[in-house]
Amino acid sequence: MNFMKRAFWSVKARKGKSILLLFVLTVISVLVLSGLTIQTAADQSSILAREKLGGEVSLTVDREKLISGQQNEESGGRARFQPVPIPFDSAEELTDSSYVKGYNYYSSTSALAKNFTAVGSEETAEGTEQEGFGGGGRMMAGDVSVEGILFSDSTSSFLNGDASIVEGRHLTEEDINKEVTLIEKNLAAENDLKVGDSITIANTENTESTLEIVGIYESTADMDERAQNFAFLNPYNQLFVPYTVANELKGTSETIDRAVYYMKDPADIQTFISNAESSSSIDFDQFKLDANDQLYQQMMGPIENVASFSNNVVFLVAIAGAIILALIVMMTIRERKYEMGVLLAIGEKKGKLVSQFLVEILIVAVLAMGISTLSGNLVANKMGEQLLQQEITQSEETANTPASFNSRRMPFQSSNVQDVETVNELSIHTTGEDLLKLFGIGLMVVLLSTLIPSLTVLRLNPKAILTKQD
């Protein structure tokens, strides 16, 4: 009788041992499969979260590093923040990346209305000059905000639905160095303006720009409470212009405040950032690439904690399972020494005895993994849901921080903090890849837990075994 048949009959004859082994292997398989399934669900949720955030990476001034550096230069004193504009050439370097499908440039300021009236304000005779907060140029609390861009259709206002074109066209890269603008519908109505008309704006030094209206948009953005005191904070008073126009008003050239790069695949964000940091000429002591990590962590923090826990479960269960199985195999070998002695005495090779033990464990392991595929998904759902709710509760308790604790921002700087919902559910489904991983881990556990204890078989002396038994 060959060792394959002996293994089958041995499993059948030793029902008690086989059932115990089946129970142990099933528990191990279910826990491992649950952990793998939760990890897969977390990875999928991560990609969905990135897609929801837009798959964007922004090149901006690193305020923390600049403030820290300026404080050091002031010999520990309280330094005034001096913003640094981003060189246009630096921003342009990253547009050729294979991971980028689109990009936009921003240069922001405010301006005085010369031949029209801003919505909700009296005609402003003179602006209040402030320390620049957007790109190192002059900044004043004027009548209108001026959003210098490259493409108006890919600005956040139009992408998230807060603005939409109602007449005319969008601004494109073909409008660079042209004096054209998009104005809001209410501003146009109050001043009886239409597409083709011109308006004039100016900075505090009376540098004027006469802009042709090429489009009118409608804004549904929430009103800033500070707009009662500062007309340029009213969303109706926002002008979209080529960034070159904004730079002219600010007294700068060949610079921008920030650049936004849109990824082809959100999964490539970290690779894009790593490549940029290692191969571009951008000074990352002054600037940084921001992938909305704060919002991403707000959305994905609890799920990532659950995924980390499930990864630990897989690791620990695999190790513990291998140890338990090794002990069971070791006990089995001791109990079956006489059987092995007889087989060795009639000429059976030691290698085939080891193979028999391995086949016996594999027969039970295959049954256990088959059972786990039926119950693993249910266990993973229950376990994942329970762990996720615990993490969400803990996250909410930590996040209940008073608004006054938020980092300070400059007088007219809008808050970039968005209210995003935490991902509070996992779509847990066992995939073919999860099953392959389970069988791979299971095979490794079975091999290690069987072969290592079975090395004692190689030292067996059939004559000594049979003599002791007699």
Automatic annotation (TrEMBL):
The keyword Chaperone does not apply. This is ABC transporter permease. Residues 141-273 form the MacB-like periplasmic core domain. PANTHER family: ABC TRANSPORTER PERMEASE PROTEIN, MEMBRANE COMPONENT OF TRANSPORTER-RELATED. It is found in: Cell membrane. The keyword Iron-sulfur does not apply. GO terms for molecular function: transmembrane transporter activity. Residues 313-462 form the ABC3 transporter permease C-terminal domain. Keywords: Cell membrane, Membrane, Transmembrane, Transmembrane helix. Pfam families: FtsX, MacB_PCD. The chain crosses the membrane at residues 313-333, 353-374, 438-458. It is a multi-pass membrane protein. InterPro entries: ABC3_permease_C, MacB_PCD, Macrolide_Exporter_MacB. Its main location: membrane. GO terms for cellular component: plasma membrane.
